[in-house]
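Appendix B, example 12.
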Amino acid sequence: MLTPRDIGVLVALDTYYLLNRPQIQSLLFVDDKNGRITRRRLQALVDAHLICRQSLLYCQNGSGAPASVYHLSRKGAEFLAEHFENPEFNLSPTSPPPHHLILHWLAISDTHILLNQALALRGDIRKESWINEYDVVNKDEAVPEKRFQLYTLIRETPRLICAPDAGFELSMEGYRKAFYLEQDRATSGVQQIANSKTPGYAAMAEHCLHRRHFPQTNLDGFTVLMVTPSPKRRDNLRKAIAAKPCANLWLFSSTTELTPESFLNGPVWYPCDGMPRSLIRRKEAS
């Protein structure tokens, strides 16, 4: 028999797509000091084929042994659709990520969790939507621009796409603004990122294509948030992207600076040029 926290695990995996045991424990089993209860409930959900477990082939930083990660199974998505009487759960991504992207996806989940914790500290801002890279709009399609919600084909020849790691929309004081997330793990060169990422976002801004993903937005512009593993990496990316078209779209922060308290309110977001600022600024302040 499923407990309320078991169902919470399924909802969390639908929300974040990929989580490890410490992340799930911090979200739903905060009273489980040694992780024993969390492991037992995760094993029960794996045995019931409601979630899938995938083992890392290498260790995370600071861990002594390869860990496991979890994502929703097709059966789990169908259970949520029936339990909440919401067929949209049937579109939840249930395929395992490639092994080389697991740590990348865990980092995205960390950022998403931080955002949700930051929003919980403020009652005047709402997250209207969050779209993961693998969120499906049409599961019967094979080509990515028709299958995935965020993957945007801007031009066929020469081919130009924009494929953010995630996107979300925040509302405050009657305004709804779109944000895109680029989660950097310092696995690619700075110039490679600047050359490959900026043309798609520049074209998206020119044609207001963010409205395809967030039709309820009432602002013509959007912001790209780049989260990096260190301040040095952050500043190197700022310099590289400053010379590219639409550099004003980008804000950069380091995981060493982001906390639930600083994510929205602290001066931890750096433009390509100039001083850091907070992500949320009231109309009179801006």
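The mean pLDDT is 93. The chain is about 35% helix and 20% strand.
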